[in-house]
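Before a colleague's protein record goes any further, I have to sign it off. Would you go through it and say whether the fold makes sense for this chain? Take the sequence as given and treat only the tokens as open to question. The record follows directly below this note.
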Amino acid sequence: MKRLLTTPIYYVNDVPHIGHAYTTIIADMLKKYYSLCGHEVFFLTGTDEHGQKIEDSAKKKGIQTIEYVNSISEKFRHTWQDFEIDFDKFIRTTYLEHILSVQKAFEIMYSRGDIYKGEYEGLYCVSCETFFTKTQVIDDMYCPDCGKEINSVKEESYFFALSKYQDKLLQWYRENEDCIMPNSKRQEIIKFVESGLHDLSITRTSFEWGIKTPLRLKDHKHIIYVWLDALINYISALGYGLDYNDAKEQLSYRKEQNPCLESKMEFFNHTTHVVGKDILKFHAIYWPAFLLSLNLPMPKHIFAHGWWTIDGVKMSKSIGNVISPMSIKEAYPLDVFRYFMLREVSFGQDGDFSESALINRNNGELSNDLGNLLSRLIGMAEKYFSLSLKNNSLSDYSLQKDEIAGIINNAMESMSQMKPHKYLEEIWRLLSMANTLIAEKAPWEMMKNGREKECEEFLCFISNILSKVALLVYPVMPKSCEKIAKALGISIDSKSFDSLVVKGEYLLGFNLLKSEALFPKIESARMKQCELPQKDEKNGSQNGKNENSKALISKSDFEKMDIRLGTIIDAEEMSGSKKLLKLQIDLGEGKPRQIISGIKEFYSAKGLIGTQVCVLANLKPAKLMGEISEGMILSCEDSSGLSLLGVESKRDNGAVVG
């Protein structure tokens, strides 16, 4: 079967972080798994490079927009290459082939009456590239997703008749129970669509950086909405809408773009999209509606995963806790990181990255359960049989074979249900079985008692278990499993997978090779050491600067800050966070402010109630772990810990500090 597998194309407003890496690793795992199962997989990733936010960012940096997007797009491409991600094509929305496909799709939808011209008046978040209704916006001015200020927009626009497809979408969701997974996300989408769909504004006239509407419309002031533009990548990368004779001439001089000079649209008949839950609406509502309009096949699966927090706190540039995947790769083996990300969290749920948890996974499941099993097997095979195990019938292990078949069946069923964490849990049952059998059978005792043939057969059986594990775990940890396969003398390919995993066959002999330790124990955290700026030994500061020094500011700079006194009237712990408390603070405004603060390590929630604190009140609202924070309490910290800033005697709430 031919299958299309995609990540979202990543927006070039920032460099890759571990959330991007998680999505891409999931897709890479699926490609390797589907390929072992005998499918022909076309794996697509890339970058989304149009929109007002990108144009604004380039202007702030004082560079050409194309120069800006080229730089960040290459960082994504190089990151996935460094991570040895096995993608077949890297698409960019600035590629000519993509632009031609988008314009062709727009033309077709327009000709079918699904696109019409009107006027849009509403609220638009530049940061999220998303339109919102008045009921969705916070305090009539802030985005419900990112917390940034919303713009009021009134302009001529082309609209896509999304409401026309409401019933067809609902029918698709209900007739295809695995079209959106996990099922809880499918139910959320059904509920949203049942509440009523409104036609979608799909062009803008207030900026220039994007794809213009087709020539035939003669309306070039219109730029196609970035989400329509971006979603079309899933077919533009396969050559949708291109006249190949013309395309060869138009695209041949841009060879670095890897143009699709022959259609690969047959891959689109079985499509799997891997996305984060924050963009599920676009992929599960807008995209299928566009496909219905274009008369193209609907996706087979849309897999929506959760977010990653860092030590319980949502990643944020303002907090400074965004982790580059490259910093992790420099500190730890890539396979360990891949295993941690796929095993640590149930697919669809939010996960928390902590270095200590990664180290525990390495030292426990990887080093003790898997790495040590291979070392013990090779050690005994070398000592007793010169690494050669021959002509073993394995007739004494029929009960264990039945159990192994059941475990493998459960594992593969878990993968079909998009539960990679359960898939790995099942495989680790095989390792537990093997390690337990070694303790029970005591092959060293067999040798002492002259039962050499029995010992050889037992080690052959353990070799078979490890062979099956290597094939099953390969999609998650390819490098490590290639080392295991080399040590066992087997190949990792679809033929071996079909024989040893799907059909449950057993090899009756092995010629083993010695192998290095797969997962050496990690004694201490490495990332913080890698990420610290280099210390200047000459003056004892970092990067040659006094670490306590700050740039001088004027009085007018200080006067921009609105610092006020407030009383904490309620406080509670944030579920799933080790650091955050949710505070309600009376600033004398009639309605309390909600502020999320990372002080849980130093203060109990109940103990804070009634405390007066200093609050930076004009800080832009931000969203942390799904909750809006409307300010920041002030504190100081030294070697003795953290202390909140207040006043020596009680004052009125709302009193100005300055």
Observations:
- The two ends are 69 Å apart (CA to CA).
- The chain has 22 helices and 30 strands.
- The longest strand covers residues 115-125.
